[in-house]
Write a structure and sequence with these properties.
Elements (H helix, E strand, L loop, with lengths): L4 E6 L13 E2 L2 E2 H12 L4 E5 L2 H9 L3 E4 L7 H12 L7 E4 L9 H6 L11 E7 L13 E8 L2 E8 L11 E10 H7 L6 H6 L3 H6 L4 E5 L10 H11 L4
Parallel strand pairs: 1-4, 1-6, 4-5, 7-11
Antiparallel strand pairs: 2-3, 6-10, 7-10, 8-9, 9-11
Length: 245
């Protein structure tokens, strides 16, 4: 297996928090915090996939590498696929790790852990989850749950992803963390597929992979990184990382 390539998709056109990749947190743009944490995972080169010159400039100022992509991609997966093809046309990297650009508190260790299921040749895509500990999150539609069957210690084979409270009955519920490690061939196949019925119903892109028969395995980790989607999330990130300004 070649060295993985970490790709961070970032765009300015967020509806709830415009320009959020450039939001200042502890004196640095949010995208730079994510870049630095991805580098600390130490699993391979890190690039930022963006359609914004301002984001590319911020990444370059931090010593990082940005790859410019088209502005009209329907999803982050499509943006990543274009960036990978531009950065690595020779196919040196056969594992692509997608780290979302709005996770400034992500633990580098869990980025590295996402690779573990890909040691199994039957797994197409790997991702992460954590046990839900807050009661209100069990029924919150914004908290995506993964339903899976155990295949190894701290590892599940994903059967379904949902915004509903599932599965029913006694036992743990798992909060899906939207970080993915793809086999490159799986990513290239995924972006050629049309949106699937359950994907459109649940508004969850990963269901497209399951509906077409791709296998997704899940590592269960201890912490859920803070995703910054709102002004309140941004203030939480600033408090956690050292400033409220």
């Amino acid at each position: 297996m070649a060295a993985p390539l970490v790709v961070i998709p970032a765009r300015l056109a967020a509806t709830r928090l415009p320009d959020k990749p450039l939001a200042d947190i502890a004196g640095k743009p949010m995208i730079v915090h994510v870049l630095e944490r991805a580098r600390k995972a130490d699993i391979g080169p890190v690039i930022v996939a963006t359609d914004s010159a301002a984001i590319a400039d911020a990444v370059a100022a931090a010593g990082g590498k940005a790859v410019m992509t088209r502005a009209d991609h329907p999803s982050g997966s499509d943006r990543i696929a274009e960036a990978v093809s531009r950065f690595d046309p020779a196919g040196r990297h056969d594992i692509i790790v997608n780290v979302q650009g709005d996770l400034p508190t992500i633990d580098p260790a869990i980025i590295a852990e996402s690779l573990l299921p890909l040691s199994d040749g039957d797994v197409d895509i790997a991702t992460l989850a954590a046990v839900i500990t807050r009661e209100e999150e069990k029924s919150a539609s914004q908290v995506v749950k993964v339903v899976g069957t155990p295949v190894a210690p701290r590892r599940l084979r994903a059967l379904y992803f949902t915004r509903a409270t599932a599965p029913w009955g006694e036992g743990a519920l798992f909060h899906h963390i939207g970080l993915y490690a793809y086999r490159r061939a799986a990513l290239e196949r995924f972006v050629t597929l049309k949106p699937s019925p359950l994907e459109q119903r649940e508004k969850l892109e990963q269901l497209r992979a399951l509906e077409t028969g791709m296998r997704i395995d899940v590592m269960v980790v201890d912490t859920v990184p803070l995703g910054v989607d709102t002004r309140e999330d941004l203030e939480r990130a600033r408090a956690l990382l050292g400033t409220t300004g």
